[in-house]
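Good morning,

Attaching, inline, the C-alpha cells for the sequence recovery test we're adding to the shared suite. The designed sequence is right after.
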C-alpha cells in the first residue's frame, strides 16, 4: 500500500466501480437493459413547464415587499432553479430530446432563469466527472484540499453549504480551466441578454428572485441534499450513493445515482426499471431515504465533511482495478441509521 497522502481524502488503489458493475449487469441482463437506452421527451416538457413557472413568478414578484421576495425566492425559486440545474445534468447526456443539437438548445434556454451562464461548461465538466470519477485533477466535483482542511467544524460547514452552488461553479474554473469556445459565447450572450431584458422590463426584484433561487436552491435547501448524497462517503468503502424518496420527482430522479453512473445512457424516467431488472446489483448497496437527513448529518457529524470523498491517481487505478478497494485513511460510520442496505430496511421516513 502506498504512503498516505498529505490531505485527508480517502485515496484508493482501484478504479471506479461503475464500469465493472455495468459490465456485470450487461452480461446478465444485456437485452433488457439496452431496451432502456435512449431519450424521453417528458423531461423536456417538465423543463419547459418549470421555466414557465419562473417567468410568471418573476413577473408577479416585481412589486412585492422585500421580505416576501426573500420568502418566495427560497420556497418557489429555490425549488424551481434547483430543478433546472438538475435538468442541466440530465440534458448534458442528451436524454431529453432525440438530437444532441436540440438538447443543447434546451440546455441554454433553461439556463436563462438560472441567471448565471452554466450550460455549456457544465456539460464539458460533467462528462469528465463520469469518465474520470474521483481522479485527482480531473473530477472537479471533488472538493479542493483547502476546502477539506478549512471546512471542518459545524459553523464552517453551514457557511460552506449556504454558498455551495457558488463554490461548485467556481471550483472547476480554478482547478481545471477550459478554453472559451463559440458555444460558451452563445451561452453567455443569451443568458446575459435575458438578464438585461428582465432587469429593464421587470426590475431588480424580479432578477434577484431568480438569482437568489439559484443560490438558495443549491445550498441549505431540501432538494440540494442530492449534491452531498451522490458521492460523499457515509459508509467506508462506497463511493456513490442513491437516494430513494419523494423529492426525486423535483430533480429528474437524480437520486438514482448509482444507476445513473452505471448507465448514463438511460433517461431518468427509466432508471427505476434498471433497478427492478437487476435488483441484486443495487439492493445491497447503501442508500439514503432523506436529503434533509443527509444535510443534517453532513453538518453535524465531525466525522463527515468535504474530506470524506474517494480519490484516485488515475482512472484505471494504481492496481488496474483488479483488487478490492484499499483505503489509505479509515473511518467508521457505524451509527448511521438512515443509510440502509435495502428498501425494506428500517429507515427514517422523511424528505
Amino acid at each position: 500500500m502506498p504512503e498516505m497522502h498529505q490531505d485527508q481524502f480517502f485515496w484508493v488503489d482501484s478504479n471506479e466501480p461503475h464500469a465493472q458493475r455495468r459490465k456485470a449487469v450487461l452480461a446478465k441482463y444485456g437485452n433488457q437493459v439496452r431496451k432502456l437506452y435512449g431519450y424521453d421527451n417528458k423531461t423536456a416538457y417538465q423543463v419547459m413547464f418549470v421555466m414557465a413557472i419562473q417567468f410568471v413568478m418573476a413577473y408577479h414578484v416585481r412589486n412585492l415587499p422585500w421580505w416576501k421576495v426573500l420568502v418566495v425566492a427560497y420556497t418557489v425559486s429555490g425549488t424551481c432553479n434547483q430543478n433546472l440545474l438538475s435538468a442541466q445534468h440530465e440534458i448534458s447526456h442528451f436524454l431529453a430530446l432525440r438530437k444532441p443539437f436540440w438538447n443543447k438548445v434546451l440546455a441554454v434556454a433553461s439556463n436563462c432563469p438560472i441567471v448565471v451562464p452554466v450550460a455549456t461548461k457544465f456539460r464539458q465538466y460533467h462528462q469528465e466527472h463520469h469518465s474520470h470519477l474521483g481522479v485527482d485533477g480531473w473530477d472537479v466535483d471533488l472538493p479542493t484540499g483547502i476546502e477539506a482542511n478549512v471546512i471542518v467544524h459545524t459553523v464552517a460547514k453551514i457557511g460552506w453549504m449556504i454558498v455551495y452552488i457558488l463554490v461548485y461553479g467556481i471550483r472547476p474554473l480554478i482547478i481545471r480551466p477550459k478554453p472559451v469556445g463559440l458555444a460558451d459565447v452563445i451561452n453567455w450572450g443569451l443568458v446575459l441578454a435575458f438578464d438585461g431584458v428582465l432587469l429593464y422590463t421587470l426590475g431588480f426584484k424580479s432578477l434577484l428572485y431568480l438569482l437568489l433561487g439559484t443560490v438558495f436552491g443549491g445550498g441549505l435547501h431540501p432538494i440540494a441534499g442530492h449534491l452531498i448524497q451522490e458521492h460523499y462517503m457515509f459508509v467506508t468503502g462506497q463511493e456513490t450513493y442513491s437516494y430513494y424518496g419523494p423529492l426525486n420527482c423535483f430533480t429528474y430522479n437524480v437520486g438514482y445515482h448509482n444507476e445513473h453512473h452505471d448507465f448514463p445512457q438511460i433517461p431518468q424516467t427509466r432508471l427505476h426499471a434498471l433497478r427492478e431488472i437487476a435488483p441484486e446489483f443495487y439492493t445491497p448497496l447503501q442508500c439514503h431515504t432523506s436529503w434533509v437527513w443527509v444535510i443534517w448529518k453532513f453538518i453535524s457529524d465531525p466525522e463527515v465533511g468535504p474530506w470524506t470523498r474517494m480519490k484516485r491517481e488515475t482512472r484505471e487505478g494504481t492496481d488496474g482495478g483488479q483488487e478490492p478497494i484499499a483505503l489509505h485513511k479509515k473511518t467508521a460510520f457505524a451509527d448511521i441509521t438512515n443509510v440502509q442496505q435495502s428498501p425494506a430496511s428500517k429507515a427514517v421516513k422523511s424528505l
